[in-house]
Amino acid sequence: MQKNQQDDYLILNMDVEELINVFLHQYFSDIHNIIDFNIKFIEHNAFSYKTDVDYIRLERFVATTYNTMIKIDPSFNYTLLSKFNKDIETLNKIYKQFIKKYEDISQLYSKQFLIFYNGIENIAKTLKTSNEGLEIFENIKELNEFIKEDFYKLINQEIASYKKSFKKIINTKYYYFDHLLYYEAKKSDSIKAYYRDSLGKNVLSTKLYIERYLKNINKDNSNHDKINNYLSKIVHIMDY
After folding, report:
1. Number of structural domains in the chain
2. Buried b (16+ CB within 10 A) or exposed e, 51-82
3. For residue 152, what pLDDT is reported?
4. How crowded is residue 193: how many other Cβ atoms within 10 Å of its Cβ?
5. Number of neighbouring beta carbons within 10 Å of residue 131
6. Is the pLDDT of residue 192 over 80?
């Protein structure tokens, strides 16, 4: 390849990435807004990001702790706790839907990206208008494969970035919600009395619930070995 063609190729590559990024910005706008809103919430409340404990894997244990406390003391479900709980449940649901939706991205290029730009022929015209580097491709098919490769690379990076942000946000919110449960439970006479009688402990916490679960599981049942091994490790670093 001659030098001037190499220069044109680089220019074309930059234009292609710009086209893809314009699409990604619009396509993921709702997800971006959700992430941005929650990051602002965390920063506004001066929360520290928490990643040591994967609360997403502890979802049912936190939910059981919360629901048990409400059953013992209905007045425990006051506005802040209830709102916090619904917020996390909604965010967790969105995250799971996001994971499921992008397990297979094989159709996104043809069904979303190309339609967004009215087809590969229209993209070719746009690129040719912006620079003369298009001649290095022998035909539309070759150009299409080149763009598709860049598209897959960039969209996988985008999806991975959103997954990482979701996990950081959800784990952080779960951490503070779980500690709020613990703090508020210590103020409930009903909750303290119930667990003092049944467990010899003053208050229920997610950590305590996990400890009880691990003591009572069937050690011969290997169906849940992975999560049980995780619980056995994580319970030692939960900080209350």
Report:
1. 1
2. eebebeebbebbeebbebbbebbeebbeeebe
3. 97
4. 13
5. 13
6. yes
Locate 224 and state its tokens.
Answer: 């849940």
Rounded distance between C-alpha atoms, residue 56 and residue 62, angstroms: 10
Residue of 2, 3, 4 whose CA lies nearest to 132: 4
State the Cα–Cα distance between residues 187 and 183, nearest whole angstrom: 7
Residue 143, in any domain of the structure: yes
DSSP state of 200: S
For residue range 49-100, list pLDDT tens digits in order.
998 899 999 999 999 999 999 999 988 777 788 999 999 999 999 999 999 9
Those residues with Cβ within 8 angstroms of residue 73's Cβ, 6 or more apart along the chain or in another chain:
188, 190, 191
Of 229, 231, 194, whose CA–CA distance to 212 is shortest? Answer: 231
Interatomic CA distance for residues 174 and 168, integer angstroms: 10
Structural domain range at position 28: 3-234
Residues 214 and 228: beta-carbon distance below 8 Å: yes
Instruction: HSE, CB side, 13 Å, CA atoms: give it for residue 50.
Output: 20
- For residue 147, being part of any structural domain is answered with yes
In a domain, 240, yes or no: no
Q: Whole-model pTM above 0.90?
A: no
